[in-house]
Structure formats: C-alpha cells, structure tokens
Design a protein that fits this description.
The chain has 292 residues and is α+β, with helices and mostly antiparallel strands. The chain is built from 14 helices and seven strands. β3 and β4 form a beta hairpin. It binds a DNA duplex (13 and 12 nucleotides) through α6, α11 and α12.
DNA sequence: CGCCAGGCTAGCG
DNA sequence: CGCTAGCATGGC
C-alpha cells in the first residue's frame, strides 16, 4: 500500500473527517471498529475509515491537523475530490446568515464538508433512505456490498466494492427484500436496470441543478427529496436543499413563513434564508438538529 | 402496543 | 395539478 499525509492547515477553514463521514451524507465509508454514527469516540475522533474506488482500497484517518491515508493507489486526488477539501470553508462559514440556529450549527461541527460521492452508490443509498434511520441505511449499503460487490483482499483484510448497476439489475426483488430493503427493493432493482440498459444514466442528466433535479426523478424511488440529495452529495449542486423530516421541523419551528405548500416553492423560500451556500447551511442544520 | 425514521408510488378527484 | 393510503423494517 502507498501512504501519505494531507496537512489540514493548508486547507481553508479546517477539516473534520468524522462529522464529514458520519453526518448522513455518504454511506460508503466503513469505520474500522465496525461502529457507525457518533458511537464511541465523539467528533474529532481518530478512527480509521475505508472504502473502495475504481477497484482500489483507500483507508484514511485524521490525527489533529493531519489527514493520513493508505491506499493501493495515490489517494490524494480522490480524497480532495470526494471529501470536499477544495471547498473554501472559510468563505462558506463567513457567508453563513446571521441567524441563531444556523450559527450554532456551523459552530458545532467546524470543519465538516460536503462529500462528492460516485453517482451510482449515492443514488442507491438515497433510494434506500426513504423512512429509514441513518444506521439502517448504512447497514443496507453494507449488505449490498458484501452480497453483490467484488471482494478485494489487501494485507489480509477483505474489502468489498459497491456493486455495478448490471449486478444489482440482475438481482431479484426477493433477494433484495431478504437483505431487509423492504419496499425499496424493487426501486433499487429497477433503477439499477435503467442505468444498466442506458435508458437514464449520469450522462443523460443535465448539468444544471434544476434540470438534474427534474431528470433524476425518472428513476424509480426518486422524488424531490432524494433527487436533491443526489444533486448535492454526488453532482456538486450545492444550492440543493433536501427537505426531509428534520428540515421540515426546522421550517415549522424557525422559518414558518417559508412553508409555501409545495416542495419546490418551500425550498426556494428557504434558499433565500440559507445564504450564499444553501447546501452547506442545510447540511449543518440537518446534522445539528439530528445529532444534538 | 403505537409512533417514527434523510419518502415514494399509484390511484383518485 | 394536489391529496392520500399503502408500503417494510427496526428502535424506542
């Protein structure tokens, strides 16, 4: 394995690996101790995480101002791209609206960044996310990897890639239900099939946010909210504001005048309140409300 | 037991 | 268009 260090002092606005990976943005990084989501360690912990990318294994952990990595490739460009290390978090933090809830959320998780996941695993994870707790979404993705992914053994440890669209399309609904995907099983299978057959793919999704938000809903199991999650956590549209149950609660309690009835109009109204980087504000507020 | 969790689909008016 | 029943599973 190759290895290296990314100095965090070189990044604008600090970095926190644990809150970035355990805030419900991504479900493709496993913590080496096998646990997930705030259990054991608390934020700023120095746990190892691992994932696979293009058939290569990447491990990383943070120790204070050093992001250490070990991988079967040079992981630096992958980490920079997928962990948002190029985002100017100093400017994003400075532009956060002067609003009590938003300021508290940004202060609570300094260094949390928005991930950029590969398209297919992101799509499948958020199709699975409907009416599910974060821990269960993670368990479902792990089950998909271990059942349909390819195994890679490095230094005596076995890792699993995320399955290809073709492999998931070839699974049966019954098999997917046996992995406890519930009513999401046919959504996963059919959406994978759409990509495998080429009827809708990442390449057919428009480049602009609104076009992408609409086009993604051609997939089965993808509505306004899941489309916004894929826009933000894979396609880089940081103006997306997924309206989930936690954000709906925030609207009721803090921004009732933003409730315009429909999803799109409410999201537009909330964008006016969330400042220059709406997706970052949304991600911090979501995580703050959910994890407090 | 009931309620809820990063909602969506299909069917109706 | 908007509205709603039904949908799997597991934690509390």
């Amino acid at each position: 394995m190759e290895s290296g260090v990314i100095p965090i002092d070189d990044l604008a606005g600090w970095f926190d690996l644990q809150s970035t990976l355990e805030s419900g943005q991504t479900f493709r990084w496993e913590r080496a101790d096998g646990r997930t989501y705030e259990s054991a360690g608390g934020y700023g912990g120095s746990n190892w995480y691992h994932t696979t990318h293009d058939g290569e294994v990447i491990r990383t952990r943070q120790r204070d101002d050093r992001l250490e990595w070990e991988a079967t490739i040079d992981a630096v460009p992958v980490l920079i791209d997928q962990l948002g290390l190029d985002d100017d978090l100093t400017a994003i933090r400075a532009a956060a609206p002067d609003d009590a809830l938003i300021q508290r959320a940004f202060d609570a998780y300094r260094g949390m960044r928005i991930v950029r996941d590969p398209f297919f695993p992101c799509l499948i994870a958020f199709i699975c996310s409907a009416q599910m707790r974060l821990e269960r979404i993670f368990e479902m993705q792990r089950a998909l990897r271990q059942t349909y992914g390819e195994s890679i053994t490095v230094d005596g440890t076995t890792y699993y890639t995320f399955p290809t669209p073709e492999r998931l399309a070839a699974a049966t609904e019954r098999e997917l239900r046996e992995l406890r995907l519930g009513y999401r099983a046919p959504y996963v299978r059919e959406s994978a099939e759409m990509i495998a057959t080429g009827s809708v793919t990442q390449e057919t999704i428009p480049d602009d946010y609104e076009g992408a938000h609409d086009a993604l809903q051609a997939f089965v199991g993808v509505g306004d909210k899941v489309a916004d999650c894929v826009c933000m956590f894979s396609l880089g549209h940081l103006e997306a504001i997924p309206l989930d149950t936690w954000i709906q609660t925030a609207i009721e309690e803090y921004y009732p005048e933003c409730d315009r009835g429909s999803y799109v109009e409410t999201a537009d109204a909330l964008r006016e309140r969330f400042g220059r980087y709406p997706g970052y504000t949304q991600t911090y507020v979501f995580h703050y409300l959910r994890a407090r």
